[in-house]
């Protein structure tokens, strides 16, 4: 029996010290694709038994760093979500993952799989997004001539940054930060308290004083955050 565990345990906030009032911690945001939701028990035909049946399988494996075994498991899960056998996923197909639909920022996570104005996701694109959740290779040196790996610390941070930066202008505005905080904290704190948290986070992370958080500022503010713990995909036998 194969299980998978794909999760964003908590969306990192760009500041070490803007907790909600009364010391209340930010609530965990879990995204789990467990056995009941994503196991490929429905269609286990030849499409899941060999890499040669996976579109661009070898190339995708080289691009993402997933092993052949992991790629086959991901293909099973893709097939399970693609119930109509179209060969692509739509945003509504992710509603099969209950933990995503219950997640306060589940809509943002689903949207991250789909480029603007694109409503179809093929298997290679599905895997390239999930590559951000691979464990960071701690002992692997990177050829500087090669592009940054999706599962590098920088790759994980870029993925998290874009969950905030919804207008894709390269900065997190106060309003974008507030939108995430509202989703994360809900009715636990007042609007005034939320604005205070957002203002404090902006002040601490905004090094150039432009009133927003750039990616470099976001990255620096999260220097001590364990991104491996926050964003991971695990396969358990």
From TrEMBL:
Residues covered by region (Disordered)? 1-50
Bias (Pro residues): 15-28
- Name the record gives this protein: Calcineurin-like EF-hand protein 2
| Single Gene Ontology MF annotation | calcium ion binding
List the lineage, top down. Eukaryota, Metazoa, Chordata, Craniata, Vertebrata
Species of origin: Oryzias latipes
Arranged from A to Z, the UniProt key words for this protein are: Calcium, Cell membrane, Cytoplasm, Lipoprotein, Membrane, Metal-binding, Myristate, Nucleus, Phosphoprotein, Protein transport, Repeat, Transport
Q: Name one GO biological process term.
A: protein transport
Among CDD domains, the record links this protein to:
EFh (cd00051)
């Amino acid at each position: 029996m194969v299980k998978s565990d794909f999760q964003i345990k908590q969306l990192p906030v760009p500041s070490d010290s803007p907790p909600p009032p009364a010391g209340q911690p930010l609530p965990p945001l879990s995204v789990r694709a467990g056995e009941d939701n994503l196991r490929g028990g429905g269609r286990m035909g030849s499409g899941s038994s060999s890499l040669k049946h996976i579109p661009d399988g070898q190339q995708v494996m080289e691009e993402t760093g997933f092993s052949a075994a992991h790629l086959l498991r991901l293909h099973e899960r893709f097939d399970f979500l693609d119930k109509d056998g179209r060969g692509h996923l739509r945003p509504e197909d992710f509603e099969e993952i209950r933990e995503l639909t219950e997640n306060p920022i589940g809509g943002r996570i689903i949207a991250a799989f789909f480029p603007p104005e694109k409503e179809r996701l093929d298997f290679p694109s599905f895997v390239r997004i999930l590559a951000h959740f691979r464990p960071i290779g701690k002992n692997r040196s990177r050829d500087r001539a090669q592009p940054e790996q999706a599962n590098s610390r920088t790759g994980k941070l870029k993925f998290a940054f874009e969950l905030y930066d919804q207008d894709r202008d390269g900065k997190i505005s106060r309003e974008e930060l507030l939108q995430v905080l509202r989703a994360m904290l809900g009715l636990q704190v007042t609007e005034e308290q939320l604005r205070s948290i957002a203002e404090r986070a902006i002040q601490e992370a905004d090094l150039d004083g432009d009133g927003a958080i750039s990616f470099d500022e976001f990255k620096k503010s999260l220097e001590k955050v364990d991104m491996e713990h926050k964003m991971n995909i695990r396969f358990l036998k």
